[in-house]
């Protein structure tokens, strides 16, 4: 298991640094995935269902997406010069964005 950890770290570092990765590290990771599948089996037909999370009705899903969108817009305005200036120029507050929002509909 420690060998797989080292292989994962080497592979991740090569991707992060943009350098060629060691083929042996990649082979070790593929072998580890195969061994895990042989030991524990595959997910099966319904195996991914628990990973999907709870079902949401349309109104709740839209509200959740809108909240996430506004949070991202506010972060962009706060952390980047481009979006901060854009929202200022448009006179639009990121926290008030929504479907159909435009400078004219403020």
Task: Give a written overview of the molecule.
This protein is mainly alpha-helical and about 110 residues long. Among the domains are: about 1-40, no CATH class; about 65-95, no CATH class. Helices cover about 60% and strands about 0% of the residues. The chain is built from four helices and no strands. The chain has helices at about 1-15, 25-40, 60-80, 80-90. Helix 1 packs across helix 2. The longest helix is centred in the middle third of the chain and has 22 residues, at about 60-80. About 5% of the residues are buried.
Mean model confidence by pLDDT:
82
Largest β sheet strand count, sense and barrel closure? none
Secondary structure tally, helices: 4
Low-confidence stretches: none
> Span between N and C termini?
57 Å
Based on secondary structure, the structural category is mainly alpha
Strand content: under 5%
The count of DSSP E runs of length 2 or more, i.e. the number of strands, is: 0
Order of helices and strands: HHHH
Share in helix? 55-70%
Global geometry: flat
Radius of gyration over all CA atoms, rounded = 23 Å
């Amino acid at each position: 298991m420690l060998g797989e950890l080292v292989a994962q770290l080497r592979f991740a570092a090569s991707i992060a640094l943009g350098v060629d990765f060691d083929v042996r590290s990649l082979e070790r990771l593929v072998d580890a995935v195969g061994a895990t599948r042989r030991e524990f089996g595959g997910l099966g037909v319904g195996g991914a269902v628990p990973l999907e999370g709870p079902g949401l009705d349309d109104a709740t899903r839209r509200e959740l997406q809108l909240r996430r969108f506004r949070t991202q817009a506010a972060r962009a305005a706060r952390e980047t010069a481009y979006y901060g200036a854009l929202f200022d120029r448009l006179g639009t507050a990121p926290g008030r964005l929504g479907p159909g929002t435009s400078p004219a509909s403020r």
